[in-house]
Amino acid sequence: MNDLFARHRSVLPEWLALYYANPLEITHGEGRYVWDAEGNKYLDFFGGILTTMTAHALPEVTKAVSEQAGRIIHSSTLYLNRPMVELAERIAQLSGIPDARVFFTTSGTEANDTALLLATTYRRSNTILAMRNSYHGRSFSAVGITGNRGWSPTSLSPLQTLYVHGGVRTRGPYASLSDDDFIAACVEDLKDLLGHTRPPAALIAEPIQGVGGFTSPPDGLYAAFREVLSERGILWIADEVQTGWGRTGDNFWGWQAHGQNGPPDLLTFAKGIGNGMSIGGVVARAEIMNCLDANSISTFGGTQITMAAGLANLSYLLEHDLQGNARRVGGLLVERLRAVAAQVPGVREVRGRGLMLGVELVKPGTDQADPDAAGAVLEACRAGGLLIGKGGGHNTSALRIAPPLSLTVAEAEEGAAILENALRGIQ
To answer: What is the pLDDT of residues 397-423, one digit of tens each?
Structure first.
């Protein structure tokens, strides 16, 4: 293991993040569990950054990938592709966007990059509204709209980005307000901002901020924003890379908690749909999707083997009501964690919905982020047989909990017990 770590450091970039003081090599998985190269077993509460959405080694997906690999793996978008059309049809119907068109990419970063290209071209503007504490990917344009310093290595950008209040409910200048007053204040801030700039192309927003530590506004904020934006022709891009496919339990898409004024104009997705296979994409109204006046292709977007995986995974998710499972098991898990948090002074907040939960850590008796405690809990969870993630805004002090959506009640209790021990260890 030490040899592999040394080889990693000698050939890969220094900025390529690794978890743990002694990094972990995962060799195989089954269901909600994975094993490392030394034979240690872990309950997986992070799913490859919310990517193994259904289960590790899900037989239905494995079978679909194997059978497709035996026929043809790839041909590019220059040829008709039956699995791509079939998956696009299903996603278009599920998206809630009328007259929808779907373009497949290989990642969420590329999906957001494409949405920005479409929105700026359609609106003939390079100004983008984004949320503070946001994260939208690692490409040049996606970094340019990311409102999280820890994941923004440059200020250079082809876009003019203006940041809006509202993505974090319990911090910032409006944190003390009621939900209704919070929304009203954010809307007034948006209106004021729009009075000082040229007309933006779009607002891009994660319904629940992923890398930002699973933070979110009150339900209805983006619906209220939508009213203001629609009056001015400004588009709404919902970044559903982490919130899509029923993970939040209450809704299939995160935007539906803000759907009072209709669906977004564009929706981006990735991560969980492939259950580990590399799939991303954009859904948009036809007039927006078709606004480009030059040719384009996606060499690896929509390739047959990933589309076969996506179709099998989506079918399994819908047929087994994993959204309902996320709601039920996630509801039990969040209450269990809140009971623990009430007894641990270093836990500021347990938040989220469904199986997308955040535990924010602070220095006891203060509101100051405690990234050292987050790192210590991450290590203690691993030692106890549990893998979790971390994130956060001003400092990386939030634990991120996002297991596969097939998590059982017994597994939720197992993971909560390990996390409880780790949290009590930081007191």
So the answer is: 999 999 999 999 999 999 999 999 999
